[in-house]
Specification:
The complex is a heterodimer of chains A (149) and B (323). Chain A is an alpha/beta fold. Chain A is built from 5 helices and 5 strands. Chain A has a 5-stranded parallel beta sheet with strand order 2-1-3-4-5, with helices on both faces. The N terminus of chain A is likely disordered. By secondary structure, chain B is α/β, with parallel strands linked by helices. Chain B has 3 domains: 47 residues, no CATH class; 211 residues, Rossmann fold; 45 residues, no CATH class. Helices cover 53% and strands 12% of the residues of chain B. Chain B has a 7-stranded parallel beta sheet, sandwiched between helices. Chain B starts with 7 loop residues before the first helix and ends with a helix. The model of chain B has no long low-confidence stretch (mean pLDDT 88). The chains are: A alpha/beta (149), B alpha/beta (323). At the A-B interface, helix 1, strand 2 and helix 2 of A face helix 2, helix 3, strand 3 and strand 4 of B.
Chain lengths: 149, 323
């Protein structure tokens, strides 16, 4: 190696990136984007880097963005009762692309559906009334980062 | 397969053979800095040097992202494989960032393009270190051109974008008058001007103000030594109008650089600046360490007690660092 390797004091832990990077999107035809904007700001203020894709994304466009951005977590906002179809489809698209990135769903999701979503490959579900702290904690946990005290 | 089990060489190999996920990860390593980033740079440096580097800058809301998206669209249609580093600021308070440039580009970009959102990550000079590293990674993986898109505020951003082979400065109608044009240092780095939102009132005024500024460069002798005058391209990025003209202007500038031998000089300047940044960062790190140690604290205490001037203290500590 021509360059002398300096001791890496800034980053003792090689694997978790120093900033959690989250791709946030809405999948399909669901125009309710107030919630995802609040979540984007919440995650930013918790020190994360949010790659905001916004409305009308497809599973393919989200996979492409997650690859290019080396996302730690993908957050999907769902307010059109399509979650039982779209979330497992997204999880399948990630598996097909061989992308091991946890998927977090937020929005109008009835409690009864949570178990089915978890079985379909969703790491966490944040329903109505989830606090900012709960959102941050769920994303951190999904990213595998240590939860703050 | 998990990427974490791969060596730097293997991952770079994968990235170069078209594995976009591997490329995404290599870019993360560069952004994180440290020993792994240095290793990636050591591996990719001999493989790079062929891509044309384009910097696109301008004030917030000038339409840089949309214009970049249109440019990428034109490039993909012509069979090129462009890469974009879209830089957005990190919050100085929390270090977090909302990176929203993709939203303007994804629909336009072809599948051949690779777009990476980059946060400035506050720490001093971090961007100046990571951007050349990321450009080198794209370059070594065959992406050409590599486009750096950033807001033209802050010295580091201007330095980064000004160090490109071709620097494009985007203004909009109503951005300011000829006086602003003359005092804004940003304009001096432009190889190409774009007046975006050219469908709006005042576009011709903006163009005229730029022409006047360029005329004055001629009068004062501040013009390009080769006599080249930066062209002014009128665009309406939201409709894609002018994007092919912009690409033509960039290609013309690249040809001009090659013809005059300035391309090699620009690349050498860029590498020189990068080496200088490395030295700055390393020395600053050592200086900070020194100030936290017994010796440094003793000297600082004497400065606080007014027994020693800050300049003398600085000299003394530099001497002890370099010994």
């Amino acid at each position: 190696m021509s360059e002398q390797a300096e001791p890496d004091t800034d980053r003792p832990d090689p694997d978790p990136p120093d900033r959690i990077r989250v791709v946030l999107a809405k999948l399909g035809l669901d125009g309710h984007d107030r919630g995802i904007k609040v979540v984007a700001r919440t995650l930013r203020d918790a020190g994360m880097e949010v790659i905001y894709l916004g409305l009308r994304q497809t599973a393919d466009s989200i996979v492409a963005a997650a690859e290019q951005e080396d996302a730690d977590v993908i957050g999907l906002s769902m307010h059109n009762a399509g979650h039982l179809t779209l979330a497992p489809a997204m999880a399948a698209a990630l598996r097909e692309a061989d992308l091991d990135i946890p998927l977090v769903i937020g929005g109008i999701v009835p409690d009864d559906d949570v178990e089915e979503l978890r079985r379909g490959g969703v790491a966490a579900v944040l329903g109505p009334g989830a606090s900012a702290d709960e959102v941050v904690a769920a994303v951190r946990a999904a990213a595998g980062a240590a939860l703050p005290e | 397969m998990t990427l974490r089990d791969l060596s730097v060489e293997d991952l770079v190999d994968r990235a170069r053979s078209g594995d976009r996920r591997a490329l995404g990860r290599v870019l993360s390593w560069i952004e994180a800095g440290g020993a792994r980033a240095d290793e990636v740079t050591a591996v990719t440096h001999p493989l790079a040097g062929d891509s044309h580097v384009v910097g696109i800058t301008g004030s917030p809301g000038a339409g840089k992202s949309t214009l970049t998206g249109q440019l990428v669209h034109v490039l993909c249609e012509r069979g090129r494989r462009p890469a974009v580093l879209a830089v957005d600021p990190s919050s100085p308070l929390t270090g977090g960032a909302i990176l929203g440039d993709r939203i303007r580009m994804d629909d336009l970009a072809g599948e051949a393009a690779f777009i990476r959102s980059v946060a400035t990550r506050g720490h001093s000079g971090g961007l100046a270190l990571s951007v050349p590293g990321s450009v080198r990674v794209f370059d070594s993986a065959g992406y050409d051109p590599v486009i750096i898109e950033t807001v033209g505020v802050g010295q580091v951003e201007v330095d980064v974008v000004g160090a490109a082979d071709t620097t494009v400065v985007v203004v909009t109608p109503g951005w300011g008058d000829a006086v602003q044009a003359n005092k804004a240092g940003l304009l001096e780095v432009a190889d190409i001007f774009v007046v975006n939102k050219a469908d709006r009132p005042g576009a011709d005024d903006a163009r005229r103000d730029l022409e006047l500024m360029l005329d004055l460069s001629h009068v004062t002798g501040a013009e390009d030594p080769t006599g080249r005058r930066p062209p002014i391209i009128m665009t309406t990025a939201t409709e894609g109008r002018g994007a092919p003209d912009l690409w033509q202007a960039i290609a013309d500038h690249a040809a001009h650089l090659r013809r005059t031998g300035h391309l090699a000089a620009r690349q050498a300047d860029r590498l020189r600046a990068e080496v200088l940044n490395r030295i700055d960062q390393a020395l600053e790190g050592r200086a900070r360490e020194l100030l936290d140690q017994e010796d440094g604290r003793t000297v600082l205490d004497r400065v606080v007690a007014r027994e020693l001037s800050p300049t003398a203290a600085g000299r003394q500590l530099i001497d002890s660092m370099l010994r």
